[in-house]
Amino acid sequence: MPSPVANTTAPRARFYAFGGSFGGLDFEPTYNFPTTNIISPFPPPPVNTIDWSNVGFRVREVALHYSVHTKKWTPPQFVADPYIRIHGMAPALNYGQQAYEGRKPSARPEYISCPPVPVEHFVNAVKATVSLNAEYVPPHETGAARYIRPQIYGSSGQLGLSPPEEYMFCVYVLPTGVYHGTHPVDALILDDFDRAAPNGTGSAKVGGNYAPVLRWSDKARTEGYGITLHLNSATHSEVDEFSTSGFIGALVDGDNVTLVVPDSKNVIKSVTADSITDIGKSFGWNLERRSIKYTELPNFSEVMAAGTTAALVPIRTISRCIDPSSPDSISAAVKQHPRLSSDKQAEKVNYIEESQEDAGPVCLKLLTQLKAIQLGKAKDEFGWCAPVTAEDGAKITGVPKATKGDGQTVDQLD
Fold first, then answer.
1. CATH code for the domain defined by 185-358
2. Residue ranges per structural domain of the chain
3. pLDDT for res 362
4. Which of 5, 142, 295, 376 could form a disulfide bond with 52, CB atoms 3.0-4.6 angstroms apart?
5. Which keywords appear in this protein's UniProt record, sorted alphabetically (predicted)?
C-alpha cells in the first residue's frame, strides 16, 4: 500500500465496497481476512460456523473496502474490517450527508450533494464483494439471504456546512434472516409524525428519513403493531408508504387483479416493489400508479409491504387512531364496509382473519415467483439476475494471500 501523501491542491476520494470515498483522506487501510482461495471450486460451500436456520439480522465481518483519489473513483480494494475509520467531524455524522442503496447504482447521491458513482464501478464493487464472500451465501433451503448494502457519505473532517473534500462509498454484504417473516402483520398509521416533507428527500434512502421514525416504530411495536404506515404530510389523506417498505394494494374482481401503488414523490423508488409489479404484469394483471386515498383502504382485497430486506410482507390489518365521526375518517366516507371496524377512538381495516397465518393468494403467488427467480428455480424473463464468478473477486487489489491473521489494521498503517 502507498504511504500517506499530503495533497492540498485537489479534493481526493476514497471508495469502499464495504467502502469507498471521493475526497481527501490520506491513507488506504488493508486487512487480512479469511477468504476462499481463488483456485478452489467456485462457489465454495457455505461456512459451517453459522446457524443458517437462525441467522437473524446481525452484521457480520463480511465486507470489502474500496478507495478513490483525486476526483476519480479508484479501482476497488479488499478490506475485511467492518469498522470504518471516519473523522468525528465528518458531514455524515454531523449533517446527515449519507445515503444507502436505492433503485439506481448511485444511491441517489444528488439528494445529499455527493458525486455519483459510475455504474460500471458500482457493479464491479458489488460483484467483487459477493465473490470474495461467497462462502457466506446462505443455503437455499434455509430461507436466509445474502443482503448487499451500498453506502455513500461525506467523510472528511470539517466544521463548515459546505461540500467536503472527501466522500466514501461502501458495499457491505451479510447473511440475513427474514426481516418481518411471511406471516401477516398488523400496521398502525402514524399521525403524530411525518416521515418526509413535501418537496423533500422522501424518495431517497437517506439517514434522515429513518432515524426519526425509530422511536415511533418502537412505540407501535410495544402496542402490538409489526409495521407503521405513513400518510402524506401535507393533508394526511393519502397513502405514502410503510416505514420500512413500499405500499402495494390489490384490487380483486373475480380473475381480474389490479395492483395499485402510490405515485407520491415522497416515497422510496423501490426496486423490490417494481419487481413485484413487473411479475404481476407478467401474470396478465393490471397496474395502477396513482394517488391512493386513505378512505380507499377497505377496497383492497390484500395489502402488502414490499422492500429489499422484507421482500413481500402481507398486512393483516391497518389501524388508525382517529375519531370515526371525523370527516377525515373512513367511517364518515363509506359509512359501513365488511373490512371496516371502529370504536370511539380508532378505526381498523381487516384484510386477513386473525385465525389465518398465511398470506392471501395474491401475495403468495407474487412472493413465490419472486423467490423462484432469486433462487434460480424459475427462468428470469426480466434480466434481473447477474452471474458472479471467482474472477470478479480476483480483479480486486488488497485480497490477502494467506489467512493467518497477520495483515495490517488501519491503526498500523504509516
1. 3.20.10.10
2. 13-179+393-412, 185-358
3. 97
4. 142
5. Aminotransferase, Pyridoxal phosphate, Transferase
- Measure the CA–CA gap between 292 and 203, rounded to whole angstroms: 17
Please indicate whether residue 93 or residue 112 has the higher confidence score (pLDDT).
Answer: 93
Q: Is 345 left (phi over 0), alpha (psi -120 to 50) or beta?
A: alpha
Taking only the tens place, the pLDDT of each residue in 34-57 is: 334 445 678 888 877 777 666 654
Taken in order 109, 115, 121, 127, the sign of the CA dihedral is: negative
What the block records as the C-alpha cell of 229 is 404506515
DSSP code at position 223: T
Those residues whose C-beta lies under 8 Å from the C-beta of residue 305, and which sit 6 or more positions away, are 180, 185, 187, 227, 242, 244, 245, 246, 247, 248, 312, 313, 315
d(CA 240, CA 401): 50
319 band by pLDDT with thresholds 50, 70 and 90: very high
10 Å CB burial of residue 231 (0-12, 13-18, 19+) is buried
**117-125 CB contacts, 8 Å cutoff, 24+ apart:** 117/15, 117/20, 117/73, 117/150, 117/152, 117/169, 118/73, 121/15, 121/73, 121/76, 122/150, 123/386, 124/76, 124/392, 124/395, 125/15, 125/17, 125/20, 125/64, 125/66, 125/76, 125/150, 125/169, 125/171
Confidence (pLDDT) at 400: 61
Cell triple for 92: 455524515
Q: Which residue has the cell 402524506?
A: 232
**pLDDT tens, 378-397?**
999 999 998 999 998 887 76
Q: Which residue has the cell 397513502?
A: 239
Q: How confident is the model at residue 181 (pLDDT cuts 50, 70, 90)?
A: low
Could you tell me which CATH number the domain at 13-179+393-412 has?
3.30.470.10
Give the residues across from 201 on adjacent strands.
none
CA 277, CA 285: separation in Å to the nearest integer? 9
Nearest partner of 127 among 40, 36, 64, 57, judged by Cα: 64
